[in-house]
């Protein structure tokens, strides 16, 4: 396996900048997810590693080798595509063994290796079937087997689970997690599904408009999102965000907004610096950190019930305030809440996030700056 390093990589398509001045390092044996919405540059980044796109400027290293302009076949990489890209006229054995065929391996040797990998992926009994004769989950495993049949330094995954139904996606996700841990592969995985990124990655690179806005372990991204964009993208449902007026008085931070009560908070250096030239911040609270509360208490927000979604063991309760802003709570309750009822949601100070006017998260008191 090998590490991957982007050094000031920019990729343009005409005047459009798909990836901008990217500096990113992926360690040997690490599983990195490139996460973001459509058009953020994640697939272009993956294709530059594969050699399917050439950087406009900058340098790309795999291990100690400069591969910026190297042909894909010389990069020692394997790739799993979104649509599996299986040859419909070949059976599974020939599909899996094809990378060995183009490298001149003898038929007996390549078929033996193909069957070995297929057995690991639990599709060894399907080797004589055609792609049209197997399920979507089995096609996904066949595509994965073809990527694994030839030893590579880096394995690339371009949204390989997006064509599977929910049950198969969950099963395949667990399988990939086990496989990566078992093989110790260096893997780069592109997805727009934050649940996949959280479940699979060693580190997540959240991308927006061609830039990496946060690069950290999954729980770091979840617990301390670097920006409001990350907070709104990672989490299901995403973090609740609300503009507030902020003021420091008597050595503590006071936050004010309509239909919201927040207990005074300690003043960190980052908060004090953010309030030197303005008084507006954004308050963030994740849905799972909200619960049904009584009115009149500190650390509460209230409004009219907008939606009450039964999710089985939990409910998603969404209230709407006068300014049309909505707050969603993920709660465990059997209580019946009447439509148009006034609902009060409570939270604790330790779960409050604050963001400055630029959208950057402000470390709270006691957190590293």
Strand content range: 25-35%
The CATH superfamily of the largest domain is identified as P-loop containing nucleotide triphosphate hydrolases
CATH topology tier name of the largest domain = Rossmann fold
Please tally the helical runs, counting DSSP H or I stretches of 4 or more residues. 9
CATH class of the largest domain: Alpha Beta
Distance between the termini: 34 Å
Low-pLDDT residue spans: none
Sheet having the most strands? 12 strands, antiparallel
What's the structural blueprint in terms of helices and strands?
Elements: E1 4-13, E2 16-26, E3 31-35, H1 42-50, E4 57-62, E5 65-66, E6 77-80, H2 92-102, H3 107-120, H4 136-148, E7 154-158, H5 166-183, E8 187-191, H6 194-200, E9 203-208, E10 211-216, H7 218-223, H8 228-233, E11 240-249, E12 252-257, E13 260-261, E14 265-266, H9 269-274, E15 280-285, E16 291-292, E17 300-310, E18 315-320, E19 326-331, E20 342-346, E21 353-355, E22 361-362
Parallel strand pairs: 3-8, 3-9, 6-7, 7-8
Antiparallel strand pairs: 1-2, 1-4, 4-5, 9-10, 11-12, 11-15, 12-13, 12-14, 13-17, 15-21, 16-20, 17-18, 17-20, 18-19, 21-22
Helix pairs in contact: 2-3, 2-4
Question: Can you put this structure into words, describing what you see?
Answer:
There is one protein chain. The chain is of the alpha+beta class and 369 residues long. It has 2 domains: 229 residues, Rossmann fold; 125 residues, Beta Barrel (OB fold (Dihydrolipoamide Acetyltransferase, E2P)). Helix content is 24%, strand content 33%. The longest helix is centred in the middle third of the chain and has 18 residues. It starts with a strand and ends in a 7-residue tail after the last strand.
């Amino acid at each position: 396996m090998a590490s991957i390093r982007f050094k000031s990589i920019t990729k343009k398509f005409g005047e459009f900048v798909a990836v901008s001045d990217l500096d990113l390092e992926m360690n040997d044996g690490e599983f990195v997810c490139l996460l973001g919405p459509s058009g953020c540059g994640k697939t272009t980044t993956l294709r530059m590693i594969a050699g399917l796109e050439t950087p406009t400027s900058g340098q790309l290293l795999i291990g100690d080798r400069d591969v910026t302009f190297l042909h894909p076949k010389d990069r020692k990489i394997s790739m799993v595509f979104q649509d599996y890209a299986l040859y419909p006229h070949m059976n599974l054995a020939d599909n899996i063994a094809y990378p060995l065929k183009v490298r001149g391996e003898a038929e007996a040797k390549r078929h033996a290796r193909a069957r070995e990998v297929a057995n690991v992926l639990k599709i060894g009994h399907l080797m004589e079937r055609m792609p049209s004769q197997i399920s979507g989950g089995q096609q996904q495993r066949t595509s994965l087997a073809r990527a694994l049949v030839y030893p590579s330094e880096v394995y690339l995954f371009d949204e390989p689970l997006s064509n599977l139904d929910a049950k198969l996606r969950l099963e395949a996700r667990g399988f990939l997690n086990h496989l990566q841990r078992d093989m110790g592969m260096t893997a780069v995985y592109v997805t727009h599904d934050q649940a996949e990124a959280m479940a699979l990655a060693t580190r997540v690179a959240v991308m927006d408009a061609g830039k990496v806005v946060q690069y950290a372990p999954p729980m770091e991204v979840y617990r301390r999102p670097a920006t409001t964009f990350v907070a709104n993208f990672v989490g299901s449902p995403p973090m609740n965000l609300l503009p507030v007026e902020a003021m420091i008085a008597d050595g503590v931070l006071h936050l004010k907004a309509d239909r919201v009560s927040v207990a005074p908070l300690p003043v960190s250096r980052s908060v004090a610096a953010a309030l030197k030239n303005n008084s507006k911040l954004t308050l963030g609270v994740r849905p799972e950190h909200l619960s049904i509360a009584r009115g009149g208490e500190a650390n509460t927000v209230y409004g009219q019930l907008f939606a009450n979604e039964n999710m089985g063991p939990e409910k998603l309760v969404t209230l709407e305030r006068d300014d049309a802003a909505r707050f969603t709570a993920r709660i465990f309750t059997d209580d019946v809440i009447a439509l148009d009822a006034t609902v009060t949601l409570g939270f604790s100070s330790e779960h409050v996030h604050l963001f400055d006017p630029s959208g950057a998260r402000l470390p709270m008191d006691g957190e590293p700056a």
